[in-house]
Amino acid sequence: MRKIASRSVAVLIIAVLVIIGLVTYIGKEYENGRQWALYFATFNSGSEGTVYDTNGVTLAAFNKQHNSFSPDGITRLSNYHVTGDYWGRTGSGVISRFWSSSQNYDFFNGTTQSQLSTLDLTIDSGLNNFIYKQLRANGKGAVMISNYKTGEVIALVSSPSIDPLDTQSEPEEGTFINRCLAATFVPGSTFKLITAAAALESIPDIEQQHFMCYGESEIAGVKIKCTDMHGEQTFEEALANSCNCAFADITVQIGQREMVNHVREYGFLDTHDLDGIPTNKGNFPLDFVGDPELAWAGIGQSVDQVCPYTMLRYVMAIANEGRLTEPTMVKNRYIRSSGDSEIQLVPKEDPFVSQLVAPETAKRMRALMINNVETHYEGEVNFPGLKLGAKTGTAEITAEAAHSWFTGFLDDEEHPYAFVAIVEEGGFGLWTAGMMMNEILHYAVNPESVISQTVTTTGRLESADTTGTATEPAVQ
């Protein structure tokens, strides 16, 4: 009798455990079923989609039978870090997110429905093509251009890149890293834009002060070297000269607490989001380091690290009276259910606008950046026809090598573009990244003045073209 009772209890316990397990599984399936189904189903739902650039050029397309890219090789190469691929080798592309969002999933029937959709990007693939050739000629690096009024990103290029249809070549080291979004670099003197804004808000008489530069200065027994002997200078002249001695002094006056507050306030310590793609966060000394190290940090050296995307956001705000319209690469999305002739525009949220920089601070920083170009970068000679506000950066990474930075904006109502460019180990900011951006900005403003090109477009909402068909690489 006792044996029967024990067995009954055991069976009851097993039954309860089975029920608990079943309920748990159903709950998990309800929560994660779509993700599981799409992971194993790949394209079995039958959904079709096409990714277009801002001019209607096809960048990628998929349906149940085929995955494809642009039939043009340079377009595939220069736009790879925008599109990504169908195998997830880079985490920055729009393809995987677009494909996933275009699948219909039903809890009871799985991926049984399909839909036809298109994704219109703000990216100009022709501009990306031009940028990639310019950037590749200088080596590795990143370039982004955006409209600081609307937030639309019109160019995003990372080098080195890869043709997603090339399954034979050995990719260069770092090919699958999107240097615009997923990398950080020593910012060098571009960081003085943050220090200058912090000074305007923290030091009441900063515009009345004068700074002496004899080629080097000393802070608490540590020498701060400058690139030149600038003599006596105002705050405005110190930024134009990119004087290390002056900005070491300015940083110490600001103090570490205020510097950290401003670096954090301007978003340089945070990860951000570009249409669902996470960006890398930067670095600045948060714990007490003493005046000499703080001085080097305010100059843009020390342990400073900056993501190009974060620098772009900051410059966009300066150019736009301190207001940041969050960047986006997505213009529109259209969707049509299978068998339905009606095309619907999927509503896109209005861009988020925030006051990233105080209006008066932004106004003064804008003027200071325009002054940099006019008085120190020989704007009429080096950037003819461009009304430009900018800051260079020569970020020392070793005794022999430095990253070349150039960031700024066009003071142009018809072309309100902000930009950031970095060439890894490119040397002086003005002569490498700066001169490269001169060519790129002239092309962005007037392509015909630089080079003529013809693009071929395809009709909307067509099934995926098998030209440029992608097959999964044997080795990923």
C-alpha termini separation: 63 Å
Main β-sheet, in a few words?
6 strands, mixed
Mean pLDDT: 88
Overall structural class, as computed from helix and strand content, comes to: alpha+beta
Question: What is the global morphology?
Answer: globular
- The fraction of residues assigned to DSSP E strands is 15-25%
Helix percent band: 25-40%
> With helices defined by DSSP (H or I, 4 residues minimum), what is the helix count?
14
- Evaluate the radius of gyration: 26 Å
Query: Largest beta sheet: what is the strand line-up?
Result: 3-2-1-4-14-15
* Low-pLDDT residue spans: 39-44, 452-466
> How many E strands?
19
Account of the 3D structure:
- Residues 39-44 and 452-466 have low confidence and may be disordered.
- The chain has 14 helices and 19 strands.
- It is globular.
- The strands form six sheets. The chain has a six-stranded mixed sheet, covered by helices on one side. A five-stranded antiparallel sheet has the order 6-5-19-18-17, sandwiched between helices. Strands 7-10 form a two-stranded antiparallel ribbon.
- Helix 6 (192-202) packs across helix 9 (256-265).
- By secondary structure, the chain is an alpha+beta fold.
Quick gist of this model?
By secondary structure, this protein is α+β, with helices and mostly antiparallel strands. The chain contains 14 helices and 19 strands.
